[in-house]
Amino acid sequence: MSVGAGPTGRLAPSPTGAQHVGNARTYLLAWLSIRRAGGRVILRIEDIDSPRVKAWAVEQAIEDLQWLGLDWDEGPGQEMSSAPYVQTARLAHYRDALEQLKQANQIYPCTCSRADVAAAASAPHVGQEGPVYPGTCAHRTPADAEALTGQAFSWRFRTDSQTVSFVDLVAGQQPCQLATELGDFVICKQDGTPAYQLAVVHDDHTMGVTEVLRGDDLIPSTFRQLALYDFFGWQPPQFAHVPLVVGEDGRRLAKRHGDTRLQTLRSAGVSPETLVGYLAHSCGLQPDARPVAAADLIASFDLERLPRTALTLTAAEVARWMKAG
What ranges do the domains of the chain cover? Predict the structure, then answer.
């Protein structure tokens, strides 16, 4: 597909399991938004969460994206300026960034476990994602790590009292008082693996990503990432957070809602146009769920038409796809 001087976006599957209908909806919207603007799409494999990564899931995710009719201009296997496109091949880059944070005393070694944080009597309150870190280890400096030999510790990023805000292309104005609502956050895990927040900010910056479209469950992560962009002096991308696909119980799509894996749909003979048509209708991109190819939605795509509420996927709808084949 021809690429102009438009924005740069990315498709960033995490190979911790099979991709499902909820993932497909977000990938489709991210791809359409960039292609509508004549931009460039990067495929990046976010396999930094190594204990949960499944070896087979990388190839399957790529096959799922191709089956949906989504393409990209850069990605794994290509030797272009943004390579490599797999996070575990970029660890040296993240460690350089981590060293900058240490030199600025912006991070500190933390020996607290999740249970410690949850149990801390001094924890100020429960924030957007659970107990806010109470600052137990915040008195430490990077130099204190040498004295922690034999103890497991992570590295936490120091937050301050300022309000971080951004204007989301879908969800609108989003403010957050980082220190009190989210607290100091882990930037490098106990096993030495850089955390998602650091890896994704570094990757998006160095790859020239200017638009990030993803699920609205990641809005809290955006505030953390903006704090990192500010520290490094990098220009953040524009963000668009779309509502998730949920099951009939209102919870995020998961195994408990039945088999919604793209691989299962493919194996059952469901056409990609059938799924794309359903997703397009759910996003207000066409008046009904008639089958349609992803490329045929580009010309009429408009973020303003997207609904602001979650999509409920029913078992009956999945059964209908299976029956139609």
Answer: 8-89+243-324, 91-198
